[in-house]
Amino acid sequence: MRIRRVCNGRGRRYYAWRGAYRPAPEAVPAGDAPAQPAPCAPDTSPNPRGEAMVFVNDTQESFADNVEKYRVQPGACVTLANYDPRDTGPLRKKQAKSLLKTLGKRLNTLQELLYATEEHALLVVLQGMDCSGKDGVIKRVISAMNPQGFQVTSFKVPTPEELAHDFLWRVHRRTPRRGMVGVFNRSHYEDVLVGRVENLVPESRWRKRYGAIRDFERILAEDGVQVVKFFLYISPEEQKERLEDRLADSTEHWKFRAGDLDTREQWDAYMSAFEAAFEECSTEQAPWYVVPADKKWYRDAVVAQVLANRLDGLGMEWPALDPAHADLAVE
Ligand code: AMP
Ligand code: MG
What we know:
The chain is α/β, with parallel strands linked by helices. About 35% of the residues lie in helices and about 15% in strands.
């Protein structure tokens, strides 16, 4: 018989026989933060240039603080049923679109600072069910940055060579060097998602991967890689519509794979696997964010704001002119 880790209340954990214990999902009033064991601490880090603080409503509440409610606190028990994929927080579509433009400019500057200072790298991990918008985020958020400064890797079914190595081998070689942004469209988490749901490896192997992932991400963080992980959370209803669109639109047929329907049939098993991944691997250094993704415009605004928060928090400054160049004049 298999056991599954479950949580009880404020981050306390115990093990129970599979299915024996599951906290009842609590109703969350519309517009409130998803229920979490501990409230997210507001990000009080100084904002060096004061540009990323965008006020979005009459109470002058900052969206920069607002999005931090989607961060999964280390040790938190995650019940996805407590999150609303249709949530649009304090934003309306028009506001979100103009906010995204502002944040795009900010991200462009921050990426240039990252490149110029060469002290940090940024690794953005995108996960989500089919049609959740991983490609959309790359197209509409990441693209605001200079293409010379980021590298996208899309992880597919492992090749025989990749399978012949440890599961982190193909991932580690695609992590960004200092100064660069790396974007993972799917990632090492597939090995505890599809790997777990489809029993691609025995449970004794995929269970150990959570610890390996925590160690791997800690090593990256300790060596200057800022790791931010997004779960783009769509509802099964929204996915149905998007899959139907793919079938109906001849310009989208190429995106459709019959296997997507098999994955969809296992929705609950995937949600449990995602919950376990967040509980096991959302850390202070490499947090998971559960992003409501039914509304593309809100999803994009949240991702852009979280990235701006993280990069702003680094307090990067433009490198000073080399003193050796101080007396030079351009004739
Ligand atoms: P897509 O991102 O829609 O092009 O699909 C990529 C496919 O590759 C998905 O079905 C993933 O589940 C699958 N995939 C990615 N990484 C792995 C992995 N480590 N093991 C098995 N399947 C994977
Ligand atoms: Mg696909």
